[in-house]
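User: Round two. Same drill as before: sequence, then structure, for each protein.

Assistant: Same drill it is. First protein:
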Amino acid sequence: MVDKVKLGKSLMELLGTAILVLTIQVSVTLGSAAAPCAIGAVLITIVFAGGPISGAHYNPAITLAIRLRGKVLTHELAVYWVSQVLGGILGAVLGGVIAGNFSNIGVGEGFSLSQAILAEIVFTFILCFVVLGVATSSKSDGNDYYGLAIGLVVLSGAYTVGPISGGAFNPGVALGLCIAKGFDNFSYVISVVIANLIGGALASGCFYLTAPDQFEGYTSVV
C-alpha cells in the first residue's frame, strides 16, 4: 500500500526543486540583471509553501546536513535526493523550453577552478548552517522567518560568488542544468556537486560544535 504522506513529501521536494531550477534557468538564460532577486524570492515562497509538507529542502546538500544532524533517516535521504535531482532536471528542461535556450554553471572568466570550488563550499556551508539554525533547532520552533532567512542566503550568494562559480550551492541545480544542456561541462558540475555536499557536511559538523544539545540522541551531562 502506498504511503500517501511519504509520497506527498517526495512530490513536494520534486515540485519545489523544479520551480526553483525553472526560475534559475529562465532568469539566467534571458540575462536578467535581477536574476538573483527572482531566485531568492521564489525560494522564499516555495520554502514557506513546502515547509509544513516535506521540510522544503529542495537541495541534496541541505538534506545531507539535516541527515547528519539526525532529523532525517537514511532511506528518507535517498528518496529526497532522487526527488530533488529529478525535480532539477524537470525544471531545467521546462525552463529551457520557455526561454528558448539552456544555461549551465561554469567557472567565471578570470577565476580559477579552485576559487570556484571554494566559493561553492563556503556558500553551501552558509546556506546549510542557516537552515539548521532557523528550520531544525528546537529553540526556533514555530518561527515565521525561516523561509526569508534561507532565501536571502541564496540571493546574497548569487550576487557575491555567482560570477565566480555559477552560484549553484545545490547539487540538484547543478545536475539539472547540466543534464538539460546535454551534460555540458560535466566534469566541473561533478566537482560542484562534491563541493556542495562537503559544504553541507561541514555545516552539520559546525552546528554540532555550536549547538550540541540540538542533535538527536544528545544527552546533557549538566
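Second protein:
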Amino acid sequence: MRSVLASVCLVTATCTGVALAESPVAYVYVAEQGPNQTTTGPISVYAASFAGKLTEIKGSPFTQAQTTGYLIGTNGTHFLAVDANPQTSHQYQRSYDVSSDGAIGDEVSTVDLHEWCDTDDGGKLDHTGQYVYVLDAGECGGNMQSFSISKTGQLSLIGNTGSSADDAPIFALPVIAGNDMFAYTWNNSSDTACPNEVFSLMTRESSGALENDSSFTETDPAPPAGDQAYQYFPGLATDDPTNHLATVVYFGDNGDCNDTQPQLASYTVENNGDLVSTNTYQDMPYPAQPTINQVILNPAGNILAVSTGTGIQFFHFNGASPITPFTGIIGTSGYISTMSWDKDNHLYALNALSGRLHVYTASSTGVVEAPGSPYNLPYCGYAHNATNCPQTLIVRRIP
C-alpha cells in the first residue's frame, strides 16, 4: 500500500479513527500558454493518488519557468526546460531545482544556445535522467545538442550532431530505446506524401552524446504478396523498456501514401541498433480513425495509447509480436494533444479542444476515467487564440 498509518495497529485488531496519509504515485506538471503563444505561463503541479485523483500542491502554480517555451521533463531532482521565443536575442537551456513534494525551485543552471541556432524545437530526457537532447529549429534544423546533467543540476554541452547520416534534416525529437544505447528519429528527404521515409539512427557515445550512425538498416513490415514495389513508411513511434518500438506505419507506392489508412507495427531493436519488424500487412491493426496525434507506451510496455479521432484508443503491445486491439476510442470531447503515463497505469491527457485534463486508469479488463476526471483548466479552444491555455504536460513518476 502507498499509505502510512498514523499509529501502529495489531494485525488482528480493527483500526478506527486512524488517519491515513496517502503518498502520491506521481506529480503532474501542466504548462499554460503565455500571451505571445511561444512561451509558457505559470506551471500548475498536481499530486496524483493511487486511484488517479489529482490535488494541486502547495505553492502551485509556479512562475519560475514560465518564459521558457518548452517543458522537457524532470529527473526527480531537477526540472528541465528550454527557450523557444525567436524574438529574444538568446535562447537558453535551463535547469531548476525540484523538491521531493514536486515543487519547482530556483534556477540552478543555464546554457546559451544562440551559438548554434536562434530557435529550437524542444528537448528530450533519456531514461536515466542524466542526459538531455535539444533539437534545433528553423534554418538550422537538423542539429541535435547533447547535454549532461550533474547531481546538482549543472548543464554541460557534450556534443553537437548535424543532419542524419543520409544528410536528410532531423525534424523530430528522438525516441530512445530502453537500453539508452540508441535513439531514433525520422526524415523525409524527398518531401513525399508519406509522413516520413525512413528512420535514422543515433548511437550514444560513452560521454552520453548522440552521434549519427550511417551503418543502420531498417526492415519494415512485409507488404502483400505481389506488391513488392510498395513498402511501409514509418510515422510516429514510442519505446518500451525491452528494446522494442511501437510505430505508426503507412503503406505507399514510391512515397505516395494518400490512399492508405495507417496501421500499427512493432519493431525490435537489434544489438547493433538495426530495426526489424516481423509484422505483416495482415496482422497489423488499424486505428479506428486515420488521424493520429501521438502514440505512447506505458512504462511496463504492454499498453499502447493512441490519440486519434475525438479521444484515445488503447491497444495491447506484445513486444516483437503484432499489436492487438484493446478498446475502441474513449472520449468524445475533442482533440487530445499531449499524453503521458505514470507507473501505476494512469494516463494523463490534455484535451486542447475542451481545455480539460483527463486521467484514465488501465487494467487487464479495460480502461476507465479516474475519479474526479476530467479536470477543468483554463479554456483553450482549438481555433481560439486565448492566453493561459493548456500547452503540454510532464509526469514525474514515483517508484
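The first strand starts at residue 3 and ends at 5.

User: Perfect.
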